Structure formats: structure tokens, C-alpha cells
């Protein structure tokens, strides 16, 4: 059935004022990445084994088995097609189903690469890459997640046998949450308190075998299982997040990951000459990948909401003529276009963070640890900012799709349920922002001592100016000047950080001040992270960007991103005196103009994400716009529509009707 809605998207596409193909390359990062991504997405989309439209209707056991089947198929296809690591990881990505492979490749392997000695890497990495063992990452316990130093699991060295004894001393010490642990993994990197010679030496990673490689039963001393059903239908329930209790489980000494700390045959603990925080390296790595993933999740939700908003018509017609596309309503634009702009902003900051991470890793390998605090602050802060915004944005996109957004066939409820734990895992977002705040307060106090700030805090070196400057914006157009925008963001962030540092010093101890002012500190941390995102976006749009009109569109999105934040945080921009109420009004006026400019390009800007209908998984976001027929077809496929008269009629409907009839006769 061809319906009028299909034409809507073709019309929209014909209005584009830029080269969509060139934008696709910018979004992907390079022609090479585009080609790989496109090919892998199509392989997944065309393979019936990777069907996912029934996920929300399956019970937990069926759902999990279905995931196991898909994961096995991923491994088989990757081998058959002789995929490179880059290709295989894209293939897994487009399968779009959380499963043990994510933790095996995303955390177990990186933990060994980052924390293992060369010898240990030589032993374990080939086993892991051939998938002769399946691994996961167990740090969190029932009683402690955020507070890593509070972990209770012990790894006690026994010099008599040259082994570590891994032990869970209490219920609260059971490992709890690790993905892949519950039912699948054969091995785990466990984080535990190292004890040797009766003394504690801090938290380190240990490789422990969990299950027999012959029949998959748990090894002696190990009690293990799944922690139970999680939020949402389908969603993260494809993953076997698990618990494990270790009852004095013995492992060879060389199963401790010893890159940064060695325990000798005699039980002596030798720390290498590196900061102890290097043990947290896997978290830094994963946080960096989570920032990149945020732009994918956000762009996916935005793609659905933009396309549907172009299809959906409400009101505005006289005598039953054609109604207005909801995308034309300014209120819809003001909710949707900042999210579209944020998707691009996060994509670029994610790419930059990848670069930063690679740069820091290179320095660490050369024993230069100077950039470690900044890498920690950037990954923690941007992970927090981008995941919080993305989770809220997915929910906003659901509302932007009206009632149909609430249907599982819109793809949005499941996307939200899968995505929202990103605000918690790899570090609770508030806890991580407090880490950024700690870094900022330190930077401010170093400034006072005459030290020059570097990296993303370089702007703070301009302290005197940032404390005094008043924005020069005197027309809406002035808000299109990068220097005007940047100055406002930098001044707000700096003034908030300085106020926190000043107020902390009024308390009896810095710790007391930090605890009492933590609400302000979190706001200062967000403001600093927004400086990073805005300045990276501005940097991006100042580069040469090939393709007709591509740069112009990105400039529009960049200013939408910045100006919507000024609007959102106007209280802070005003109270810190960075802008006046009149300038805030001018910024808003400019924002409205920019919405008008993005409007004709909106559908093409989401087409540039190059998502397949399989990946989107949404009746509302289909490329061809055939929304209503698809909604109807999917409704008919619902298990409840298998029969016309429902199961339960005889037992539960008929007696009620009969009873009602009896009553009405009385
Ligand atoms: C579909 C395909 C997907 C593919 C992607 C695959 C990836 C899979 C993605 C998702 C699946 C979900 C998997 C989830 C896994 C997990 O959740 S694992 C568990 C993660 N847990 C956490 O993140 C815990 C959070 N807590 C901490 O990180 C720390 O405890 C802390 C909050 C940072 C506090 O640490 P601590 O108490 O030791 O520290 P402080 O006293 O506050 O600080 C001491 C100094 O150390 C500095 N510091 C802290 N952390 C780091 C670090 N990571 N790197 C460098 N430096 C660090 C801190 O700033 C202090 O410095 P200072 O003294 O100079 O101020
Ligand atoms: C889907 C999912 C997958 C996961 N996968 C893994 C995995 O593979 N491996 C693994 O080891 N772990 C995993 N985790 C666990 C995850 O890392 C932790 O849940 C996370 O680190 C948060 O810790 P928590 O649960 O202890 O939260 P808590 O720290 O208990 O947080 C509870 C509340 O307290 C607040 N809070 C805590 N400390 C402070 C503070 N200092 N100041 C102010 N507020 C504070 C938080 O903001 C939050 O609001 C996973 C979790 C989820 C949800």
C-alpha cells in the first residue's frame, strides 16, 4: 500500500541544501570508515538470523537463547567473511543486541591488554581472540560499585603453594552486575584487595576461571548466576548480568595482572614507578568508547523523531485539506533540533576524545604520566555529560512522536531502556562529575600558585579577562561569532569553578567544603564539559570540509548547539554576569532563526547518519516513510492478535459478562 506519507520524505529530501553523500563521510569520520560501516550494516540488515523485531515479545529465557544464537552467528560470520577486528566490531555493533561479546571484546580483552604484562598478554590474548575462552569484567559488588576502594573481595597470596586465594568474605562482597558473567563467561577479570604477608596493598585485577571448558559447570568454590530481569521489555535483558561468590578459590600467582604491580614468589609486592590510578585504566578506555556510542544512540532516536515529524500531520487545514507537518511547529523544532545538533556535537567530541585517548596512551607508554589527570577528567566528564543528555533525549524523542512513540514498534521504548543504564555503568554520572570538579578546583588553586593550565583547561590561563569580561553581543547575528560564543561559555565555566574553589576555602577542611558544595561543583563540572564540546564543534566547523553546503549546515548546527545551552542554562550565564538579560534574548532570537534554516534540511541531516531500517528498528523512522502501513502490519503481528478471541475468554471474560447480565436482570 502506498500512502501519502511516503511522498513527504521524498519531498523533504528534495529540499536539501547540501551534499548528503559528503555529509555521510563527515559523520562517519572518513571514506574508509564509511565504507566499512555501510558494508557491515548491510550484512546485518540482510541476514534473517539478525532479525530483532520480535525481541520485546519474548520471555526472558527465549530472549536470552535468541541472543546466544545471534552471538554464535556473529562469530561464525566474522570467521567466514574473515573480518578484520574493525569490521567485526562494526558487525557486532549493528547486530544491536547487548550480549556477552560486548564485555568479552569491550572490557575483558582491554583489561588484559592494559593491565597484563607482555608475557600475560601473549598467553591470554590469543585464547581470547580465538574465543577459546570467553571473558568478562567483575569489579562491582553487591555492596559497592562507585567506591572502588571499598571493594571487599580479597586475593590473598599463599607463598606455600604460590597461589592467590580469591575469597568473598560477605554477601555484600559478591560480585554483582558484570555482563556475561551470569551464564556465559568461562573466565573473568576480578578486582580484589591484594593481601600479602598479612598486609593489604590495594585493588588489582586477577584472571579467574569460572566454568569448566568441558561442560560449562561452575568450578569448585564458585557460586554463580544471573541477577534477574532488568528494566524494560527486550532491552538489556538479552545480557546475563551476573553474580558470583568465591569460596577460597585458588589461582596461580601469575593470574594476577602484573603490569603495574608485581607479587614475587616470596610474596613481596613491588610497585612499578607509575601512578596507582593506572589500575583504573580499563574504565578510562571504556568511558571513552561510551562517549562515541552516545552519538550513535542519540542520532538514532533523533532520526526516528525527525522522519516521523515530517510524516505526521496535525491541525492547520481548512475544510479537511492537507494538515501541517508537526515538524513545522516551532515548539517541535525547539525540542528536536537541539537534539539533532547535540548528536553531531557528540560525534565530533567523541572523535576528538578518541584522539586524546590515543595520545595519552602513547605518552603513558613512554612513562609520561603528566596528562593522566586530564584524560581521567575528560573521559569521566564527557561520559557523564553525553550519556545523561542522550538518555533524556531518547525519552524526549519518544514524546515528540506522540502516542505512537509509546509503542514498542516505534523502537524508542527499547532504545531508552537499553541506553539509560549508560548513566550508571562505567561510573555513576554524578560521581564522575565530582571527579571533574575535583580536577577543576585543583586547577584553579594551581593558577593561584602561578601554574599555567594546559589541555582543556588552557582557557583558564586567561583568568583576569574571563573574570571581568562582558559579552559584546549587541545583535542576534553577533551570536554567530565563534569568539563571542566561546567567551561566554569559558567565562561561565571559569567563574563557576572559581566560586567553588573560593567557597571551599571557607570551610574547616577542603573535604568538608567539597562535600557541602557538591551541588555547585557538579554544575561547574558540567559547564566545563560544555566548554569542551562547544569548542571542539567550533574547531570542527572552522576546518576545510568538502561537499556542497556541508560546512554551512554544520555551522548552523554548531550554533544551535551552543545557543540552546545558553538558553537552557540562562540562569548561570546571567547570575555569573557573563551575559545580560538582553543578550540572552538576542541569543534566543538567533536560535529561532537557525531553527528556520535547519528545517528544510532536517530529514537529509538525519539521512546522513546512513542508518538501515534494521538498525533503526522503528516503524516511525523508516527510510521510505511508510509509517502507518507498518504500524498496522506490526500490530497484526503482535502475539495478542494470534487469535481473534483471546485466550482466557472462557475463564475470565465470559463469566464476567454472564454475571453482569444476571445483575442487570435483577
Ligand atoms: C554494542 C557494542 C558496544 C561496544 C562497547 C563495549 C563496551 C561495553 C559498554 C558497556 C557495557 C557496560 C559495561 C559496564 C561495566 C562497568 O560498569 S565496570 C565497573 C565500572 N565502575 C566504575 O566506573 C566505578 C566508578 N568509580 C571510580 O572510578 C573510582 O572509584 C572513583 C569514583 C574515581 C574514585 O576513586 P578513588 O576513591 O580511588 O579516588 P579518589 O580518592 O576520588 O581519587 C584519587 C585520585 O585518583 C584520580 N583518579 C580516579 N580515577 C582515575 C582514573 N580512572 N584515572 C586516573 N586518575 C584517576 C583522582 O582524580 C584522584 O586524583 P587526585 O588525588 O590528583 O585528585
Ligand atoms: C546495565 C549495567 C551493566 C553493568 N555492567 C557491569 C560490568 O560489566 N562489570 C562491573 O563490574 N559492573 C557493572 N555494572 C555496575 C556499575 O558499574 C555500577 O552500578 C556503577 O559503577 C554505579 O555504582 P553503584 O551501583 O554502586 O551505585 P551507587 O554508588 O550506589 O549509587 C547510588 C546513588 O548514590 C550516589 N552516590 C554514590 N556515591 C556518591 C558520592 N560520593 N557523592 C554523591 N553521590 C554519590 C549516586 O549518584 C547514585 O545516585 C553494571 C551496571 C549496570 C546498570
Terminal Cα separation, in Å? 51 Å
CATH homologous group name of the largest domain: Butyryl-CoA Dehydrogenase, subunit A, domain 3
Query: Beta-sheet strand percentage?
Result: 5-15%
CATH topology of the largest domain: Butyryl-CoA Dehydrogenase, subunit A, domain 3
Structural class: alpha+beta
Count of the separate structural domains: 3
Low-confidence stretches: none
Helix content range: 40-55%
**Total of helices:** 23
Q: What integer value in Å does the Rg equal? A: 27 Å
CATH architecture of the largest domain: Up-down Bundle
Ligands, ions, cofactors: ligand LFZZZEXQ, flavin-adenine dinucleotide
**Would you count the extended β strands for me?**
11
Largest sheet: 6 strands, mixed
Describe the structure in your own words.
This protein is of the alpha+beta class and 666 residues long. The chain folds into 3 domains: 1-45 and 281-625, Butyryl-CoA Dehydrogenase, subunit A, domain 3; 113-273, Butyryl-CoA Dehydrogenase, subunit A, domain 2 (Beta Barrel), CATH 2.40.110; 635-666, no CATH class. 54% of the residues lie in helices and 9% in strands. It has helices at 4-14, 20-28, 31-45, 60-80, 85-95, 100-115, 118-129, 281-311, 330-365, 372-400, 412-419, 429-448, 463-468, 482-504, 510-516, 518-541, 550-568, 570-575, 581-598, 602-607, 613-616, 627-636, 649-665; strands at 135-138, 154-158, 163-167, 175-176, 187-196, 199-209, 222-226, 242-246, 249-252, 261-263, 269-271. The strands form 3 sheets. Strands 1, 2, 3, 5, 6 and 9 form a 6-stranded mixed sheet that branches. The longest helix has 36 residues, at 330-365. It is globular. It binds ligand LFZZZEXQ and flavin-adenine dinucleotide (FAD). The site of flavin-adenine dinucleotide has 21 residues, from β1 and α12.
